[in-house]
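[agent] plan:
  1. take the single chain provided in the ticket
  2. run structure prediction with default settings
  3. attach structure tokens to the ticket
  4. add a short note for the reviewer (M.T.)
[agent] executing step 1
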Amino acid sequence: MSKTQFPPSIKSRPVYGELEARPGSGHLMIADAEGAEAILDLAKSLAKSGAKDFWAKAHIIYIPKATGTKYSSQLEELGAGKFYAGPSYEAAQSRIRRALQDCHMGTQVYLSGTESLMGQAMAEATAAGIPHTAIQTEHRGSTARRMQCVHCKGITEDVTTDPFECSHCGLSLFVRDHYSRRLAAFQGVRVDAEDPGNIPEKVELFK
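[agent] step 2 finished; step 3 output follows
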């Protein structure tokens, strides 16, 4: 089970698990903020099992964000063959794509952290031809959502309230659980479409 417990929802809503070390020709780990905790927990389980060559074949790409800076040194101390820490997903995107392109058959991919990070990295991995069976996910940290406005198609990051204002067209949108794996985003629909101006009070649902 995921460390974050999400209530039951519709079928398109992603479901997350718990990272576990698997045999592979390589191990690509992509995480942000508290997602580092999942990798560190995996490292503890590996230490107990006595695995020796796992980290030499590992590549860690980490996006600390404001809340995850304390984990960077701990991840680096794991001794991965390659380690990178970057300021944002956008800054790391070219590196992620190159790492996926360089994967050999049998590489295992581990994604942990926010839904925004995992969704975008999952889309990149599947586009690069990594089979779903070789990709693991574990949610850690913020539950803020990456939302797409179905009206203007703009993406708003880190949505914490319902409804919320689209950062592109300014419409007040209802936060839906419908999820697009292609866009790595939940879908937002105009909340006052049938009764313009009748906008309910915002409620903080995500942190």
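[agent] step 4 note for reviewer: The mean pLDDT is 94.
[agent] ticket updated
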